[in-house]
Amino acid sequence: MTSVALRSRAWKLLELVTTPLLPSDYLDLVSPLRAGADLRGRIEAIHPETGDAATVVIKPGRGWRGHVAGQYIRVGIDVDGVRLWRAYSVTSPTSRADGRITITVKAIPDGKVSNHLVRKARPGTVIHLDQATGEFVLPKTRPAKVLFLTAGSGITPAMGMLRDTRLADVVMIHSAPRKQDVIFRNDLHDLVADKALRLLELHTDTDGMLDVARLQDLVPDWAERETWACGPAGLLDAAEEHWARHGVSERLHTERFRPSVVVAGDGGEVTFGKTGKTVEADGATPLLDVGEGAGVLMPSGCRMGICFGCVTPLKSGAVRDLRTGEITEAENGVLVQTCVSAAAGPCELER
Amino acid sequence: MTAIDPTAHLTDEQIEELGRELDAIRDEVIASRGEKDAAYIRKVISVQRRLELTSRGILLFSIFPPAWLIGTAGLSVAKILENMEIGHNVLHGQWDWMRDPKIHSTTWEWDHVSPAEQWKHSHNQLHHTYTNVIGKDNDLGYGIMRVDEDQKWHPMHLGQPLWNFINACFFEYGIAAYDLELGKNLHKRRRNNPEFRARAKAVGRKIRKQVLKDYVIHPLLSGPSFLTTLAATFTANLVRNLWSHSVIMCGHFPEGVAVFERRSIKGETRGQWYLRQMMGSANISGSKAMHIMTGNLSHQIEHHLFPDLPSNRYAEVAVKVKALFEKYELDYVSGPLPKQVFSAWHKVFRLSLPNKKVKQTPKKTEKELVAA
Ligand code: FES
């Protein structure tokens, strides 16, 4: 018998010992970062970068497969007891000797996770991770000329790349409200002093927003440069349009982190993903009734919010709890009780 | 329905007002759920797992009597915690709000022969929706006992103290049979229903795994301590069964708890539903340790009003709920465990005989109720 087969036998036996739990449920108590566990990480330190941004140093679990500069990871952290997931670019170089990774987080107004990470999280906390992913990376053969067009926390993936690879000719246009808001400002100026970077730093509070039409003046050879742009949607929209107008779209790479913000309304179009049905619903009818009305097979039980027999994954949009008025937005793994929830704007259920 | 209606003095408006006040209590807890609550359940789970592991470890040497005693006691406590404070409450969705897929009503499986999925249906859905409605809530006597004077007496009921005792010893199997609605489904015509067969299969699988673990694998691992470990796990299961049966009997059986007619719940309003939960449940008083060991089902009244609130919050909720009982002049049935267990058993014995053979419990007049 091969050792793999032997191991899986042994594991099966162990499962008999621990049933109805799994051996991993016990191992997680003592060694949450071991090989074979769900991917987790431990926060080892949190360094402030600016008044509202901080770099989080994470020791990833043994299952971590590494990243490519520019990629992001999804981080799951418990905020006020509720597990929330957000995506952050990895800002450490791939060559970091101690195997730690860093993410750099800017606290956005009302951002539950970002504020928690910047102001409240403590070293020692175990967090949940997904493997690194994303196409916002440098190609294997490094382009001769590079332009980074970044704003605010959009600097983070670019910094990940700059720290990872020394590029021959690289220009960065970075916008932030004020000098003290520029994340990694010292590191950037070190790179400039090293002649590893040409930096155009824009303080939008005094200089105004970057007008993409001015690009020609700022970086005359912009159209020849392979460009990576990351920042607020306005900036990216303008860039995409500009590059398209000049017929060089293929040179522009963009990364958008915050997908369309959910606007909670009152009622809306409800889509049942699996059955492919879509119906209009008002803000007072339970989604269970909406689904049944549309002929979708919905799990149900007490129909009054106590048995949890109707929980269904919410794939997108938002719903309102008819008892408390509380809004729940779709996120990975979020289930809602359809018998006491109504559409709060367009939403999709997995049924 | 036996005594005079203990809620007769309330007007419809008062009942709806009572419902609103209870909703407000619920909202308050929901709005303040957070880190502390999450830390609580994680702690209980961690303590339970460590206790179970340690006890099973000690039982490897159960051939030595002190090891047997300590290991058996530890395993009994671990099993009780697992079923009551953790399993029962997680399966109620009390911790779903944490969005931790590992502590979630849709993924949790417990140390019990009834698969979580089936138990959720018969318990969360049927029992909690139709609490104490004769004919709809089978938890009332589990279909094997007469629990109210108004139920017709049958000579078979003479044996009910015995059935109840056997049921207590093998409670988890009783629950599994009950979740399967075995009595009803064993009839020839229903037996071959594919849906029933699938559920029966699931129970069979679960029983096989549980039995294999407790009565084969762990004893085998103990080598020379095979027999003593076997006896230890059997004892732990017995203790857990007797304990949970007692706690659960105290929830709806003691004297003073009301049962309802099927007709009475037609078109029930939210306020009336709440009122039925209040009159149909009873509490156990005691220390904090006592509450944890009962899975906070010692706060049965609060649990029935708000089955999905985290169990660690019932104690604080109880203060407010009790005040409402007083305000609306209702009887808050509560007492220490021995008293409630005795009361429930007394009822089992009393109702095993036909009505005229026993002295009826003196019925309280409305005046007495108000004064109580
Ligand atoms: S059907 Fe029971 S909670 Fe929704």
Automatic annotation (TrEMBL), chain A:
Entry keyword Metal-binding: yes
Record domain FAD-binding FR-type: where: 36-139
Pfam families assigned to the protein according to its UniProt record, in alphabetical order: FAD_binding_6, Fer2
Keyword Iron listed: yes
Keywords of the record: 2Fe-2S, FAD, Flavoprotein, Iron, Iron-sulfur, Metal-binding, Oxidoreductase
Necessary cofactors: FAD
Origin superkingdom: Bacteria
PROSITE patterns attached to this UniProt entry: FAD_FR
Coiled coil regions, renumbered to chain: none
A single GO molecular function term of this UniProt record: oxidoreductase activity
Stated name of the protein: Stearoyl-CoA 9-desaturase
Protein's organism: Lentzea guizhouensis
Organism taxonomic ancestry: Bacteria, Bacillati, Actinomycetota, Actinomycetes, Pseudonocardiales
TrEMBL record, chain B:
Transmembrane segment boundaries: none
UniProt GO cellular component terms: membrane
Domain Fatty acid desaturase: 67-334
Record Pfam families: FA_desaturase
GO biological process, one term: lipid biosynthetic process
The entry's keywords: Coiled coil
Superkingdom of this protein's organism: Bacteria
Protein's name according to its UniProt entry: Fatty acid desaturase
Coiled coil: 8-35
InterPro entries (UniProt xref): FA_desaturase_dom, Fatty_acid_desaturase
Alphabetized GO MF terms: oxidoreductase activity, acting on paired donors, with oxidation of a pair of donors resulting in the reduction of molecular oxygen to two molecules of water
